[in-house]
Amino acid sequence: MSLRSALRAQTADCHAAVDALFGSFNLSRTQDYKAFLRAHAQVVPSVEHALEEAGIARLLPNWSERRRAHLLAADIRELGDRLPAPLPQPALHCEAAVWGAAYVLEGSKLGGALLAKAVPDHLPSSYLTPQGPKGAMRLFMDRLDASKVDDPGAAVTAARNVFDLFLKAGQLTLETVP
Prior knowledge:
This is Heme oxygenase. It comes from Rhizobium laguerreae. By secondary structure, the chain is mainly α. It has a single domain (3-174), classed as Up-down Bundle (Heme Oxygenase, Chain A). The chain contains 10 helices and no strands. The chain has helices at 3-10, 12-23, 30-41, 44-53, 56-59, 63-66, 69-78, 95-115, 136-146, 152-174. The longest helix is centred in the C-terminal third of the chain and has 23 residues, at 152-174.
């Protein structure tokens, strides 16, 4: 089984839970959209930083073009909101864990593109509609498929941990939405 297949199969429950939770935000309402972005801002910068410390640029040479924390921060500032304190970054101690964490962030771009359709045109949405490098998802999946990790379980654990961070941030944020 390829690493991509293992990640897809063994994180499907987490992925469904995150989709359901973030699908409960009404992105056409400014307050919900702000809350949605704040929840993501508790996770994305931490995970990106952890990936960088663990050497993601070695695995994905165009990593700097894939980063989205700055787009997220810009959207939040444009909405007149402030950045929340980030959740602790995940521990990524091996290449497999790096792939697992990156799998979640890269996959969130696909979900973001779908969610962006619900955001009114007058609201900033550069985080949900990043331009990034052409063919970025295909390149990511090709590299993921070609990776020769010793411990696919570490990739799955890291991916599940990142999904859990999104769940925690989303749940905490939903509690504050009027």
